[in-house]
Automatic annotation (TrEMBL):
Record-level Gene Ontology MF annotations: efflux transmembrane transporter activity; porin activity
Protein name from the UniProt record: TolC family protein
Localisation per UniProt entry: Cell outer membrane
Family indicated by similarity: Belongs to the outer membrane factor (OMF) (TC 1.B.17) family.
InterPro entries, A to Z: OMP_efflux, TolC-like
Keyword set includes RNA-binding: no
Keywords, sorted A to Z: Cell outer membrane, Coiled coil, Membrane, Signal, Transmembrane, Transmembrane beta strand, Transport
Protein origin, superkingdom: Bacteria
One annotated Gene Ontology cellular component of this protein: cell outer membrane
Signal peptide residue numbers: 1-19
Length: 434
């Protein structure tokens, strides 16, 4: 009688000690920490920042180009230097010997693009699309992080509850071993029945060890994902199933991967326009300032010119067609990739919905099976106590009850997880957990 009281108390004390060493964690807290500390999310955010700076750099091509230059050169070898110019009346004509000592030249110029075949404006549009694409990829990365967190969270919950069920069963198994030992010592049962009871207790202990190992592995991965420097143990406090909706006709509109490929197709379209811009001339407003002084020869100070500059690369008429065709091919590639991805998304969404429906049905069966297994064990145990059932029947009924309890725990977790997976496949995960 003392043993029957002591073993359950020992289990309760062990469970309380484990609870004291664990930190209670809600799903919202886990997601918040993962998003704040995920390395993948930070890399994606950094990529978005880079795209934004690149866009600003492209936009600066609309601004005028300003440049200044100057040089002073000392003439070391003067050679035969003569001034070829028409002298004033009475001074004679012909070439005049001069002896220049230095040359100074200073210039400043400004050039403002007026027309570049649409190259600048389309490059700006493309850079803006690249920023949008990067933001979509960041959102997709964050949704992936949330999905990883949910998977680990429910995995820990599943292991945690499984360990609880196994520990409860281990109490019965150990108590049965003690009872069978007494029966054996009194010659009531054969030694083989006692060994079977010990084997079942050992099997339950092995199952506990395996579940504990899985729990620790999942727990460690969650710690890494949340950015924890220590391997804290967590006690899952909520893992409820979601209320699901039917598949809608617009289930693809929220998929970030599809939106990203659509954005890539738009970028490819801009690449075609940029490539075609090389066929057109470039026109720019130009202005220049000159200051030139050649010692004893000529001087031109504060000279200003304004005008238009025209540049036309004629070789582009036969060289650029390959660039245009390459850009067109990339657009076709993006469009085909988009169609393939849509088909893949439809399959994933349909399968995830079917998976949730199946998990819901299985969970109902698990609940009925649990009730039936508990009742069956009660009946068999009563028969065994009255000598109407043998050890094999008792142990089999106990295993069936244990399996039913574990199935119900796993079923609850799988149903909830399947609900989150369905939202994830639709691209609606984050908006439904806020």
């Amino acid at each position: 009688m003392k043993n029957k009281i002591f073993v359950p108390l020992l289990l309760v004390a062990s469970s309380l000690l484990m609870a004291q060493n664990s930190t209670k964690l809600t799903l919202d807290e886990a997601i918040e920490k993962s998003l704040a500390n995920s390395k993948a999310a930070k890399v994606s955010e950094a990529a978005t920042s880079s795209a934004e700076w690149k866009s600003k750099s492209v936009k600066s091509n609309q601004l005028p180009d300003l440049n200044i230059s100057g040089q002073y050169q000392q003439i070391l070898s003067k050679g035969d230097t003569k001034l070829k110019m028409q002298l004033p009346t009475g001074a004679g004509t012909g070439m005049v010997n001069v002896n220049p000592d230095h040359v100074f030249m200073g210039t400043a110029g400004v050039s403002l693009p007026i027309y570049a075949g649409g190259q600048i404006i389309n490059a700006i549009k493309q850079s803006n699309l690249a920023v949008d694409l990067s933001k979509l990829q960041t959102e997709s990365t964050k949704e992936d992080v949330v999905w990883q967190t949910i998977n680990l969270y429910f995995g820990i919950y599943k292991m945690q509850k499984t360990i609880d069920v196994l520990n409860e069963n281990l109490v019965r198994a150990n108590q049965r071993v003690k009872d069978f030992k007494n029966f054996l010592d009194n010659g009531i049962i054969p030694r083989n029945d006692y060994l079977r009871a010990k084997l079942q207790a050992s099997n339950v202990q092995i199952a506990i060890d395996e579940a504990t190992n899985n729990y620790e592995n999942l727990n460690y991965r969650l710690n890494v994902l949340m950015g924890n420097t220590t391997n804290a143990s967590y006690d899952i406090v909520d893992a409820n199933a979601l209320m699901m909706t039917e598949v809608s006709n617009n289930e693809l509109t929220n998929r970030k991967d599809i939106q990203s490929v659509e954005k890539q197709a738009e970028i490819a379209d801009q690449s075609i326009k940029i490539a075609k811009a090389a066929y057109y001339p470039q026109l720019a407003f130009t202005g220049n300032y000159y200051a030139v002084d050649i010692d004893q020869v000529a001087s031109m100070i504060n000279s200003v010119t304004v005008g238009l500059g025209l540049k036309y690369d004629l070789s582009s008429l036969y060289k650029n067609k390959h660039e245009v065709e390459y850009a067109k091919a990339k657009k076709v590639e993006s469009e085909m990739q988009l169609e393939a991805l849509k088909d893949k998304a439809r399959i994933e969404i349909n399968e995830s919905h079917q998976k949730y429906t199946l998990a819901e049905k299985k969970n109902k069966v698990y609940l009925e099976a649990l009730e039936q297994a508990a009742e069956n064990y009660r009946i068999v145990k009563d028969k065994y106590d009255n000598g109407l059932a043998d050890t094999d029947q008792l142990l089999e009924a106990d295993v069936q009850q244990l399996q039913a309890e574990i199935n119900k725990v796993v079923g609850d977790s799988d149903q909830a997880l399947a609900g989150y997976e369905y939202l994830y496949m639709q691209g609606k995960l984050i908006e439904n957990i806020k």
